Every structure is written in structure tokens, then in C-alpha cells.
Amino acid sequence: MEGMHIVPDVPVPLAPAVPPTPPIPLSALLAREDLALRRIAGPAGPDTAIHWAHTSEMADPYPYLLGGELLLTAGVHVTPADATGAYFDTYVSRVAAAGGAAIGFGLAPVHDTVPPALVAACEAHGLPLLEVPPQTTFSGVARAVWQLMAQARLAELRRVTEAQQRLAAAASRPDPVPSVLRQLAQRLSGWGVLYGPDGTEIASAGRAPHETARQALAHLTDVVRPAPTTMASPGTTVRTPPPCPTTPPGAAVRTPSPSATTPQGTTGRTASPTPTTPPGTTGRTHPPSATTPPGTTVRAPSPSPTTPPGTTVRAPSPPPTTPPGTTVRAPSPSPATPPGTTVRAPSPSPATPPGTTGRTPPPSPPAPVGRPIAAAVPVAARPVPVAARPVPVAARPVPSSATDTVAGSHLAAYALGAGQGFVLGVASPHREPGDHTIASVAAVLLSLLTGEHRSGTGAARSSALVRVLLGAPPEEVAPLLGTGRWVVVHARPDTQAADAVAASALGAALGSALVDLTDGVVRVLLPAEREPGPQPGWALGVSTAVGPGDWTTADAQAARALARARATRTALVGHGTRPGLADLLPRDEADAHAQALLAPLGATPALTETLRTWLSLHGSWDRTAVALSVHRNTVRQRIARCAALLGTDLDDPDVRMELWFALRRA
Question: Taking the CA of residue 331 as centre, how many other CA atoms within 13 Å lie in the half-sphere pointing to its CB?
């Protein structure tokens, strides 16, 4: 990859910074008729960009150039003796090395024409050379540059402002994520893609780049995606630093006791005090492990006569693999052992045969002053391998954005602020100064949208909870939500199929996180006091407010209301709550009459649902077909079959009324 650039981990601002002043093309400056500039050497392509104008008569202007300048000079620094090819070659090479964009050579009062050697040098180094006529002042050229830059800046600000407005409008659409990506791709003339926490492409828009650049962009997202906290593999060496030389007298140098998750046999050891540890300092180990085999002898020799007072001599606990009967000894400290030093013997290895004695040599002499402390750590303080216990590894800090250029495509990746691993990727054939600002606005909007989505885990939990609430016995799940009344909302977008992010955004708009997406229908469960309103781009069916015992009934009501809303092209249809004549009859008698009347249709639920929808839509074939997602001829065939099975005339309004009464009780 070429030129990868990583931005430090700075949160994307909600109010993007003003884009930098864009450079101007050299061709725009040459097009100014009032300047009458003329290109006489160097490349004539449109890629030359001017960032500012600078006047200098130095023989070597290199130290005073920042790059991107139109360097204006009248050749005062050129004497007749210096007007040679070697002089101008050195001069032009230094300007090119400093990043100069072009040279403007002024005619009169020093030179009547542009020196041919300068023309040749600019051609050789590929640096544009302009002829500035006598009537054009250098200050006039500089003023023209600033005017063109101000115009370019104003145009760029207008472009960014319009892009912000269009992106905000796209985020309010029923399909917010695809809409934002489409607007972003259109504004940047490239490709925008939203990557999920697992690196898969959730949605994309625009013209996809070359496959090489596409793979590079997917790899670039790993740079800005937060790395999960990992556990070190078994065998990782855990080091304990030696005590500080300023340890006060009598202080015990210890390591934390092994955690509850430490495998049996894992030994936590302390570093022996350094040679500068004051007398009386004790280095201790943990008591022998409970897994020490029977018969294992752990001995510490008596201090030698030369051992200073306060010196503790201990032997470590043998590992659990030490064969029975193995003796582990620690030698007596040598005369050079400083006061307070602990001498230990390492545990025999698992391969040590029974009866073998593991001994260590005497400690080395004290380290000289100025020697690194780590070099003076005795044997007992060396790294202890952990055979089976995983060790947490701190997550690496990640940047908020990164850019790269691959296969002629400018790539950029932006970590979304939700912190769940969503990443916005952008690929464009060119990069303008305001592109980063526009992409940052899109990243903020997508952060809000994916924040509502809360990644796959949160969405799965929410979906599972809704399924439990709408299908499980109420007495089992009612305590989860309290004792209120609830409504069920069924929704479908007017245009394309709903996705998980759009479903979560709808739930946020309605004021509930209890959202489920099944077969293209979004179901939302929300408290009755949050009365749902029409949502642009959605068709909604709303149930009546019910208690936990009637959640299943409310789900069916919302489904029927949604079918009616789609058939009538209405934004929101609520299930009727006004009592009718049927409510005046005893429930058991009304149910018995409904079951007897509809018994011929009981073996075919599709006929019952078709008849219900057809009657609710006043016998409209087309609307019924839309509501049931079937062909209108299928509706006609089913209704004719219902009339034949019931043995009645469905064109009779009395028959329709009686059947509607029965269907409401079914």
C-alpha cells in the first residue's frame, strides 16, 4: 500500500471543522487575461496545484520554501557570470527539491527575456516556468492567487454545506443507512460502505473500486476497529519487576497471590531484593501448593555463619509434577551475600528422576553502581513461565480514522462512535480538501444509527425478548416489563425491504428498544402511553392497548391493521376500540354462533383470512390482493369457494354483516 496515513485516536467532532483552503490549478492562473502570464517551459498538465505565491531573489531559496509555491523572481540574483546552465540547473533543482510548484520569471528591469538556460533547466526538472510581462507586478500575481483561492474556498464551503444538508435528510428516510451511503458516494463521486463488527459489508452504495482497492479498504478497517481484549496463550512469561532500591527497611517484597483461576501447580514468585535493599528486607514465596505429592521434602538449609542477621533462606514449593521422594535444597548463602537477601533453589523440572537433588550455585556478587537493576536480579526473580493460565493482554489503542492510496483509489476508514466495531469505508478516484469533512458528517450520522442498532449481540437480545413477549405465557414474562398496558405495532417500509438497522431506527423513533424483524415485517412493543404516530416511508398497523394477558391478541390485531394500511395506502391504521352490538351479547353464546357459522371454512385457514380481509376492505379485489400479497384472481377464486362452502350469497349485505360479526369473534 502507498502512503497509509493514520489519524490519532481523536473522537469525530459533531460539528466538523472548516475544510482547509483548497489549492488552485495553475491553469486557472494562466486563464486570467489581466495577468497575461505565459507558460514557456515545464509540463502543461492540469495536475499542477498552487498553494500560495512567494517572491524571493535569493540564489538558494530552498530554506524559505514550504512547498506548493509559485516562486516569483526577477533574476536579481543572477549576474552575467552566473547565467550558465550549471547555475540555473542547481537553482531549479533546489526549488524542485523544496516542493515548489512553479517559477514565475519577471521581465524588466533586470532581464529583457527569460534566460534560455533557465528554460532548459525547468524542462529538465519538470518544473513549470511562467513568463511574467513587465506590466504585471508580482503583487498583482499574488493578489490573483489569493482571489482564486478565496473563490475555491467559498465553493468548497458551499459543497460541504449542501452535502451536510443532504446527508441529514438522508438519515431521516425510512432506509437511513443506504440513503446516507448513497448521498456520501454521490458527493464524493466514489463508493461508500458500512462494515459490521465482524468485517462484513452491511450496506454499500456507489461505484465499487477495483478488487485490489476493495480488499485494501477492508484491511484498512482493521486499523481503526477496536481490538478485543485477548488472553495470552499458555506458556506466556509473566515478569515481576525487582524491588525499588528505595524500599524501606523491613518491607516485604511480595507478588499477588494466585487468583482463583490459577491452575493447580502454578507458582506465584517474588523477585529477590536487589543488592541495595536495606537490611531486614525479606523476600518470601507463597506456601507450598496443596497439590505437592506426598513424600516430597522441601528443605531450607540453616544460614551459614557468615549470613548477616535478618537474612531469610527459603526453598520454593516444588511443582505438582515433582516425583515423590524428591529433595529440593537451597545452598547456604555465600559470604558475599548482602544482608536481607533471600536465596532460593529452583524447583526440579518434571523430568527430574526420583531422589535427584536440585541445587543452585551461590548468588552472584552485588552489581556495581549504575548497572541496570534487571541485570542484578537473582535466580529466584527470573521470569516464571505460566503453563496453563491465560493472561489478559491490554487492547491496543486505535486511531479514529486512517487513509491509504491503492490502485489509483483514495481510501479512508472511519471508526464509528458507537464503539461496537462498525466502520465506514470510503473509496474515491480523487481527494478534495472538503472530502474528509463530508465523510466525517456521514460517520457521525451512521454512528447514531448504528448506536441504536447496538451491533449483532444487542439486536439479537432485543429480538429474542420480543419473541418471548409475543409468544411465551404472559405470567412468565410479565414481571420483566412491569404492570402497564402495551400496544403492538406492525410496520413495513413503502419501498424496499426493511433491514436490521432500519428496524432499530424505527424503534428509536417510536420510543422503544423492543424491536423484532421477521419476514420483512417490523414488530415493535411499546408502552401504551407512547402513542405511535405516522412515520414517513412506513405503513403502520397498531393494536389496542392491552395487558400482558392479551399480548398475542394484540399481535394479531396489529397484523390485520397493517394489512389494511397497506391495502388503503394509509400511513397508520389502528385497530378499532369502539364497542359494537356484538359486545352486548354474552361471550360464550357469541363464540358458539361464530364457530357454527364458520365451521365449513375451518379446515382452510387461508379461506377464513381471505374472507376477513375482503370484507374489511368492502369487497375490493385489488386491495385484498395487495393486503394478502396474492394475485387478484386468487382472491376471486377463494371468495367463490367461501360462498360455495357457506352456501350463501356474499353480495347480500345482511350476510356480509353476519359473517363479519362471526369473524370478529373467531
Answer: 12
Residue 378 has pLDDT above 60, yes or no: no
CA–CA gap between residue 393 and residue 232 (Å, rounded): 6
CA 168 to chain centre: 20
Angle between helices 632-646 and 605-616 (to 10 degrees): 110
Longest dimension (CA), the chain: 121
The dihedral built from the CA positions of residue 583, 656, 560 and 646, taken in this order, carries a sign that is: positive
Rounded Cα distance between 345 and 331, Å, is 8
Cα separation, 146 vs 140, in Å, equals 10
CA–centroid distance for 281 within its chain: 51
Query: What is the CA angle 293-297-301, rounded to 5?
Result: 150
403's enclosing H/E stretch is strand 401-406
77, 87, 89, 122, 286 from 82: Cα distances, Å: 9, 6, 11, 17, 84
Strand 384-385 relative to strand 237-238: parallel, antiparallel, unpaired?
Answer: antiparallel
Burial tier of 654 (Cβ tally within 10 Å: 0-12, 13-18, 19+): exposed
Of the candidates 86, 58, 88, 92, which has an alpha carbon nearest to the alpha carbon of residue 73?
A: 58
On the question of a cis peptide bond just before residue 309, with omega within 30 degrees of 0, the verdict is no
Q: DSSP secondary-structure letter at 6? A: E
Most confident of 30-34, 419-423, 449-453: 30-34
Q: What is the spatial distance between Cα 573 and Cα 579, in angstroms, rounded to a whole number? A: 17
**39: its cell numbers:** 507558460
How far apart CA 323 and CA 347 sit, in angstroms, is 11
Written as nine digits, the cell of 26 is 495553475
Cα separation, 386 vs 262, whole angstroms: 9
For 114-139, how does the pLDDT look when each residue is reduced to its tens digit (9 = 90+)? 999 999 999 999 999 999 999 999 99
Residue 549's pLDDT is 75
| DSSP at 376 | G
Contacts 24+ apart (CB under 8 A), 578-581: 580/664, 581/661
Q: Which residue type sits at 339?
A: P
CA distance 21 to 323: 77
Please give the backbone phi and psi of residue 439, each rounded to the nearest 5 degrees, phi first. Answer: -65, -35
Distance in angstroms between the alpha carbons of the first and the last residue of the chain: 67
Per-residue pLDDT tens for 35-53? Answer: 999 999 998 877 789 999 9
User: Amino acid identity, residue 7?
Assistant: V
Alpha-carbon span 314 to 343, nearest angstrom: 6
Side-chain-side CA neighbours of residue 389 (13 Å): 18
CA atoms in the 13 A half-sphere facing the CB of 134:
6
SS (H, E, C) 96-119: HHCCCCEEEEECCCCCCCCCHHHH
Phi, psi of 153 (to 5 degrees): -65, -40
CB atoms within 10 A of CB 597: 18
How far CA 79 is from CA of 58, 59, 82, 562, in Å, comes to 12, 10, 5, 89
Q: Which of 264-268, 599-603, 632-636, 649-653 has the lowest mean pLDDT?
A: 264-268
The 69-73 sheet, strands edge to edge:
38-41, 129-132, 102-106, 69-73, 52-55
Quickly tell me which residue has 389496542 as its cell: 544
- pTM of the complete model: 0.48
Q: Name which of 291, 382, 380 is nearest 342 in CA terms.
A: 380
Q: What is the pLDDT of residues 128-167, one digit of tens each?
A: 999 999 999 999 999 999 999 999 889 888 999 999 999 9
Torsion angle, alpha carbons of 209, 213, 218, 224, to 10 = -110
pLDDT at position 417, please? Answer: 76
71 three-class SS = strand
